Amino acid sequence: MCAENYGNSARNNIVVRYVIPFALPIRWYPDNPSGKRDFRCKYGITTIEYGSLNPNGFGYIYKLTSKNFEKIDDWQWISHDDVIPVEVIKIAVKDYWHTITFSEKALNINNLLYPNE
Length: 117
Fold this sequence. Notes:
alpha+beta; two-stranded antiparallel sheet; 2 helices; about 20% helix; disordered N terminus
């Protein structure tokens, strides 16, 4: 599981642990169509293998109803209809920074893009 708990129920806490890495604004490098990004999650740590993450950035968790979604594999669900979030939760990267590590290559990219952070 990646990252920490959020919310006031045990169910929310479990679900949010899995979504934090996908809510973080991990960017492609270079930031264009030929760019690349790669990250892994294990034991509560998100390791950025390639790409960047602004330490002062923000990400978003979109809470949705399960109505109209169908499961397509072990981790993904899809809706063929438009979905309006029930809640949008803004998260600060700095609140999860202690759960993030970088490969050597990703650290070099991040230091290049955010040298004073």
